[in-house]
UniProtKB/TrEMBL annotation:
<dbReference type="GO" id="GO:0005737">
    <property type="term" value="C:cytoplasm"/>
</dbReference>
<comment type="function">
    <text>Catalyzes the reduction of 1-pyrroline-5-carboxylate (PCA) to L-proline.</text>
</comment>
<feature type="binding site">
    <location>
        <position position="32"/>
    </location>
    <ligand>
        <name>NADP(+)</name>
    </ligand>
</feature>
<dbReference type="InterPro" id="IPR036291">
    <property type="entry name" value="NAD(P)-bd_dom_sf"/>
</dbReference>
<dbReference type="Pfam" id="PF03807">
    <property type="entry name" value="F420_oxidored"/>
</dbReference>
<dbReference type="InterPro" id="IPR000304">
    <property type="entry name" value="Pyrroline-COOH_reductase"/>
</dbReference>
<dbReference type="GO" id="GO:0055129">
    <property type="term" value="P:L-proline biosynthetic process"/>
</dbReference>
<keyword id="KW-0641">Proline biosynthesis</keyword>
<keyword id="KW-0963">Cytoplasm</keyword>
<keyword id="KW-0521">NADP</keyword>
<dbReference type="Pfam" id="PF14748">
    <property type="entry name" value="P5CR_dimer"/>
</dbReference>
<keyword id="KW-0028">Amino-acid biosynthesis</keyword>
<feature type="domain" description="Pyrroline-5-carboxylate reductase dimerisation">
    <location>
        <begin position="158"/>
        <end position="262"/>
    </location>
</feature>
<dbReference type="InterPro" id="IPR029036">
    <property type="entry name" value="P5CR_dimer"/>
</dbReference>
<dbReference type="GO" id="GO:0004735">
    <property type="term" value="F:pyrroline-5-carboxylate reductase activity"/>
</dbReference>
<dbReference type="InterPro" id="IPR028939">
    <property type="entry name" value="P5C_Rdtase_cat_N"/>
</dbReference>
<keyword id="KW-0560">Oxidoreductase</keyword>
Amino acid sequence: MKIGIIGMGKMGEAVAQGLAKYGVEATLRGSTRTEESAADVRERLGMACTTNNAEAAQGAEIVLLCVKPHQAERVLREIAPVITADQLLLSICASITTRQLAEWSGDKATVIRAMPNTPCLIGEGMTVFSAGTGVRPQHLEAAERIFGPLGRTAVVEESLMDGVTGLSGCGPAYVYLIIESLSEAGVKIGLSRETATLLAAQTLAGASRMVLERGVHPAALKDEVTTPAGCTIDGLMALEEGKLRVTLIKGVLAATERSKSLRNNA
Ligand SMILES: NC(=O)C1=CN([C@@H]2O[C@H](COP(=O)(O)OP(=O)(O)OC[C@H]3O[C@@H](n4cnc5c(N)ncnc54)[C@H](OP(=O)(O)O)[C@@H]3O)[C@@H](O)[C@H]2O)C=CC1
Ligand SMILES: O=C(O)[C@@H]1CCC=N1
């Protein structure tokens, strides 16, 4: 599989490193804006990297677009002359629609919009795809070959992709905030920072795996922890008083709204 990765920042690099780490057979050629970044990628990742986007895209079976949303139009118009109908353009840009991607790249390639998240770097990512016009099962299979080994994947209608961005794309940041807050609580009750962070992070990881592996509703799992007249119910009451649920819901909705509006200023 020949993949041209346009943009080798946090996400481009996470994908490249993930593919190498999980043994996915692929020839990677990256591109960046500055020679400094390209040299850094060549040196640290040992892969080809250039500042010539057309060179990275030309001949690749999959062109993976990993630049910031506001850079997408310029980059796609730049590579449009070398894009061909047999290529798959796979974009991870927040907000940018399959229609915009197709138009800017010259309406030739098949287009899939994807929303991964940073845990792809350790094979624990969540990547969601939505298909543009003319996408066939083999195109989704190709996208799956890249992101499948980097975690879990799902496919949704494009109308849901801004919400997906607000939930799982941005989600790791919310979770880090929660881990940091729980760790602060541990420090407050006298644990070392290191121990407090371990307790907080492993508790989130373990609870997440319970949801994923047992397939039980989170409310039922919460009930298993909550002893009548015990300690947990007092903790839960304090969290409900602080409106934790509605605050998290509002966080996802705010990010979703931002994802809807970004493309108009791209
Ligand atoms: N960060 C995240 O958690 C997630 C991000 N995304 C999406 O991924 C995309 C990339 O985000 P992220 O990796 O965080 O961004 P970064 O800022 O870390 O990386 C951007 C990369 O794009 C390169 N670039 C900029 N302009 C050009 C250009 N004209 N030609 C070629 N390369 C260029 C930069 O090169 P240089 O270093 O030389 O400037 C850099 O390598 C965004 O669209 C974002 O919406 C999706 C899911 C999660
Ligand atoms: O904050 C952002 O815009 C990007 C998109 C998803 C995660 N980070």
